[in-house]
Amino acid sequence: MRIAIASDHAALDLKAELRDWLIEQGHEVADLGPDTSDSVDYPDFGYSLASVVADGSAERGIALCGSGIGISISVNRNPAVRCALVSEPLSAALAREHNDANCLAMGARLTGGDMAKACVTAFLATEFADATPQGTGRHQRRVDKLSNPSC
Questions:
Q1: Most buried residue among 26, 27, 59, 63 by CB atoms closer than 10 A?
Q2: Is 138 annotated as a binding residue?
Q3: Catalytic center at which residues (predicted)?
Q4: Cβ-based burial of 150 (10 A; exposed 0-12, middle 13-18, buried ≥19)
Q5: What is the architecture of the domain spanning 2-147?
Q6: What is the pLDDT of residues 82-115, one digit of tens each?
């Protein structure tokens, strides 16, 4: 899978750990930065991540900052992107299954490496419910309203 990953300075170490682990798992990973621990503005990196997911350059995105909150807000400014802030695997799976989330956000100050990997594993392994033969369409109808409230 093609995965883009971005962070701010507070999540630089977690980003590197997840990037390397994802590559070991056989994924193609685009690291959108930053490359140093110098202070940066998380919206810049959130907007970049959203852009590559929205245009299809990446199938999924992983957004990281100190709490996960700020970068998830910036990623969600793009109407083609659905970024879920999670801290445990069940929420990551449900974000995919019910909301067709294409980006995952986590806080490096709140989520350790092992838990972050568990969240990413659940996120990548879970299909959107309405993409399966058992899908009823109810989730897709709701997801459509996220980008277009008049649906």
A1: 63
A2: yes
A3: 65, 98
A4: exposed
A5: 3-Layer(aba) Sandwich (3.40)
A6: 999 999 999 999 999 999 999 999 999 999 999 9
